[in-house]
Amino acid sequence: MPRFATIDVGTNSVLLLVAERTPEGRFTPVLERAEITRLGRGVDATRRLSAEGLEATLSVLESFAREARELGAQDIAVSATSAARDAQNGAEFIAAAKARAGVTVEIISGPLEAQLSFAAVHADFAAEAAGPLLVLDIGGGSTEFIYGNPAGHVDFRHSFDVGAVRLTERFVKSDPMTPEDRARVEAHLRETFRTLPPPPPGAVLVGVAGTVTTVYAVRHAIDPYDAEEVHGGTLSLSELSALVDRLCRMPLEERRALPGMQPKRADVIPAGALILLESVRALGLEECRVSDRGLRWGLLAHRFGAGASRS
């Protein structure tokens, strides 16, 4: 069966998916990898990708592209999101990725990012939900909300410039987070999310990306991380509230040692968890389902699925 690969370059992490396409047009994963490189470090303040962030990301991109080719991937689609969109030197990253990894990076828009994340969630949760789906995609630099119907049509989508890295750099001045830091984050989020339209009746909320999966893994002490244990899980509002309180009060070194925590994500997880909690509250819901399959899966179907463009 033909194999294809997608690489999702985010503000905080880089994710690789290599998958086989069956004759029926479905995709089966062959390899999934994730590395935290913090491409977006400092971008909120400087509007430039740092030398450190560029080098770390390019090194991982080279490694991921090589692995994909060694596994027989016929083509590799690479997307970049919030940090690359915001940075004045995004073109430098694109040129370096082509020269060093032999891949063409597409800096995708917020609306396309939202559409791809929704497509990935719809493929896995639509039949089970049997009603409207809401997708929450929390990244390092931005957070997307997508409302869609059971048929897969997107009715509303919006990308907000709030993410785990961006809010940590902007508001968190102490370790552990002080009550004053937390209050500033919460106030900013509540003001940002007040424009969200109410969800349709019976809607099911599904969260994607590293903040959501990490929060679930920590809540259930899933260590080492197991995508099959995480995917399809549920986080209640009460669970979220208690865990956020715990994460915000805990020093960095203690957070790093938590079962289920990626150590490199520990510094930004309090802000990320607050985004998750305030998102659920803003929507007036009582729980959030968890998806381990985000943008990279939507990009796979978009670029290499039945009828997709191979350009």
Automatic annotation (TrEMBL):
Residues 23-301 form the Ppx/GppA phosphatase N-terminal domain. CDD domains: ASKHA_NBD_AaPPX-GppA_MtPPX2-like. GO terms for molecular function: pyrophosphatase activity. It comes from the Bacteria. This is Ppx/GppA family phosphatase. It comes from Pyxidicoccus fallax. The lineage of its organism: Bacteria, Pseudomonadati, Myxococcota, Myxococcia, Myxococcales.
